[in-house]
Design goal:
69 residues, mainly alpha, 2 helices
């Protein structure tokens, strides 16, 4: 499960970086501003998904831990 979240997070982050890259040269127009805003949103959402993947992986380790301490 965490691998799916990690893969989607990495894809969203990469797509956001590409979108920002396309928006920078045409920053003078409203399309450039829209691309930069959309890219920033995608990057932040991708980083949140990566964080969720790490949390799910840690929770799986806690759930799989033996109950005898």
């Amino acid at each position: 499960m965490y691998l799916v979240l990690l893969a989607i997070g990495l894809l969203a982050t990469a797509a956001g970086c590409v979108t920002i890259g396309f928006g920078i040269p045409i920053n003078a127009f409203s399309l450039g501003n829209t691309l930069i805003i959309a890219g920033t949103t995608a990057v932040s959402a991708g980083l949140v998904l990566i964080g969720l993947a790490v949390a799910v992986a840690q929770l799986r380790r806690i759930a799989d831990a033996p109950l005898d301490a």
